[in-house]
Amino acid sequence: MVSTIITTTGQVTIPKEIRNYLNLDAGSKVDFVIDENGAVKLIPLNVPVQTLSGILHRPGTKSATLEEMETAIQEGASDCG
């Protein structure tokens, strides 16, 4: 396990071992995601989107079809205007 300290301004230094593992360099962007179990995940945004597939999967939920997603988008758009 790798640890770090939070500064008084809320900043942390990502340890070199983790930066290397995630292929992060100065200027890299990351997202923080709280999963269904309450764990916080650091997601590097410098990776192809295909490698992120399934990271937010919740057991027991079914995948939506493209048609279902398009319908939901249309319904959401019609609610806005």
UniProtKB/TrEMBL annotation:
Task: Fetch the Gene3D superfamilies from UniProt.
Answer: 2.10.260.10
Tell me where in this chain the SpoVT-AbrB domain is found: 4-50
**Domain of life, source organism:** Bacteria
Q: Which Pfam families match?
A: MazE_antitoxin
**Example GO molecular function:** DNA binding
Descriptive protein name: AbrB family transcriptional regulator
**Which source organism?**
Nostoc piscinale CENA21
